[in-house]
Amino acid sequence: MIRSDRLFGLVAVLAALAYIASAWNLPPGNMFDALGPRAFPIIVGCGVLISALAMILRPDPEPDWPGLPTLASLALATVVLVGYAYALKPLGFLLPTAIAAGILSWQISGRPGLAAATGIGLSVGLFVIFRYALGLGLFALPRALAG
Amino acid sequence: MDILSNLALGFSVALSPWTLFLAVIGCFLGTIIGALPGLGPSNGVAILIPITFSLGLDATAALVLLTSVYYGAMYGGRISSILLNIPGDEPAMMTTLDGYPMARAGRAGEALVISGVASFVGAFLATVALALVAPYLARIAYRFGPAEYFALYALAFATLGGMTSNNQAKAALASFIGLALALIGLDNNSGFTRFTGGNLHLADGIDFLVAIVGLFAVSEVFFFIESHGRESALGVRLGKLVIPWGEIWSTRWTMLRSSVVGFIAGVLPGAGASLGSFMTYMMEKGIAGEKGGFGTGVAKGVAAPEAGNNAAAGGALVPMLTLGVPGSGTTAVLLAVLMTLNITPGPTLFADRPEVVWGLIAALLIANFVLLLMNVPMVRIFVRVLTVPPAILLPGVTMISFVGIYSLSGSYFDLLLMVGFGVMGYVFRKMDIPTVPVILGILLGYQMENNLRHAMTLSGGDWTYLFSSPIAIGLWVAAILGFVAPMFLRRFLRRPSVAEADRIVD
């Protein structure tokens, strides 16, 4: 099996090459700005390239990645957070927060009752703190309903 | 006496009822944040930055609030070290070695009081030293030109990466990734947008707050999902609280020595509070010898690392304020605070905005007294906080992070970026790639490039200009040493129990 460090290094090498190529198309410097916008990014790109190659050549021992079930629940958590990012504006604060916080809480403790209480409690509690104590402009409910 | 009039100016700013109120709130929140396992000074301050700015506080008020949180978190870290054997943050690691045995022997109260007093001594002396040393360093920094600044930034990356990582290649990679991310967006000098892939959301660049909150706070929730919050702290109990005057007095030299060493460790770039507490503990252990009983629960064993790490926290502010170069993850976050407030740290800060610098120093002195009061007589309140289960705490932290970032920009795109940085933080920490250099790169990338371009324009494109002054050469030599030396020193400096304690925290 390919070591994680090698795989990561390879991805970083490809990204660095794309970065350098993108920088190459920027204009060179002029008399007021000797380096111009391209030189430093190329230096940085080469830095990524060299250190990533070093990682490929001398990888560390394999980190202990979690098993498949845990990876699946980490993926689920990521999906929940991404969904939350999209939902926060159109759906208001209360509903998405309760759902997202509830799922995360359930993933940590595995106790559905505690998770549901956490979701609702955090959603209402944080809304009251943010809206009334700190005065942030949050909407409680979907814009369509609140008008 | 210059310093007295400066301090008088500082106290005139900091002693208003409003700033005092903010200092108390900050200390309180900070101690809680420090005490909670999984939240430390850097991610604690990180999640509070966006919220503080949404409140529209002025620069001094925001600075007082957030630095009180920082100092508070440094104090608070010892509470879970002593009671649970879990360091609340990395610098509090060494406090577990004698603090937990003391708690097991039924002397938790004494351990908390002694370490609280030690924290106060360390932090207080360091703040005084900061007030004395910083203006001198600022005067030297006046002689820095763009070439020297470029070398200084290189020094910061080299030492921070070299000292905090186990693998030089990974530390370098993290720094370069941070710099690469910093260059995304509009280039102010030429008017070209770079590396946005045509995405309009990226035209303004990546906000460093998004990266900090993602890497430090959101990634934490992934670790707790992985471990299912096994380290929950239910059932902590604390006996009656007595103040062991005799024992505190017996550690007076330990506290003083540790404060000096801790302060120096804090001033050095890249060393920071963790090294400060490590060095002071080992030093005191060596001085006490076999009979000292270090590791079995002795007062000096909790006094040394606590005085050391709090002194280092003060010391770390010296390079951050005078040069604009943070020496640790937490000071990187504080630099982010200053940059968001449109305050540019560096030598000119002392001349142009004395009210900010001296107000901050006065606020830190005040915060110390507030923290001493909170952490000795009122320590019970914070012990109770430890019983909050992670299944409530971590979702709460995540939601606060979202609201904070959302209230800054109101854009879903920043939230997505933040989640991305959270995943990145998890993967990086799993693979032992340090995340602090990434933050440092994002924070300093813009200035680093500007200084380089400025230097090259001054010299007409002659690269040897970068190595043309003695200061610049000295900085480059230090940078190379700071990066290379840890490879050879590592086997001597190997910190005991770090790997073990890391596993516990994660």
TrEMBL record, chain A:
Q: Which organism is it from?
A: Albidovulum inexpectatum
The name on file for this protein is Putative tricarboxylic transport membrane protein
Q: Which domain of life is it from?
A: Bacteria
What parts of the sequence cross the membrane?
A: 39-57, 69-87, 93-109, 116-141
- The DUF1468 domain extends over 8-137
Give a yes or no for keyword Membrane in this entry: yes
User: Which InterPro entries would you find in this protein's record?
Assistant: DUF1468
Keyword list (alphabetical) reads: Membrane, Transmembrane, Transmembrane helix
UniProtKB/TrEMBL annotation, chain B:
Keywords carried by this UniProt record: Membrane, Transmembrane, Transmembrane helix
Q: Does the keyword Transmembrane apply?
A: yes
Domain DUF112 residue range list: 20-440
Entry-linked Pfam families: TctA
Q: Does the UniProt entry include the keyword Iron-sulfur?
A: no
The organism's place on the tree of life at top rank? Bacteria
| Membrane-spanning residues | 7-33, 45-71, 111-134, 140-162, 169-186, 206-225, 260-283, 323-344, 356-375, 381-405, 465-489
**Family matches, as PANTHER family:** TRICARBOXYLIC TRANSPORT PROTEIN
- Name of the molecule in the record: Putative tricarboxylic transport membrane protein
Instruction: Identify the species of origin.
Output: Albidovulum inexpectatum
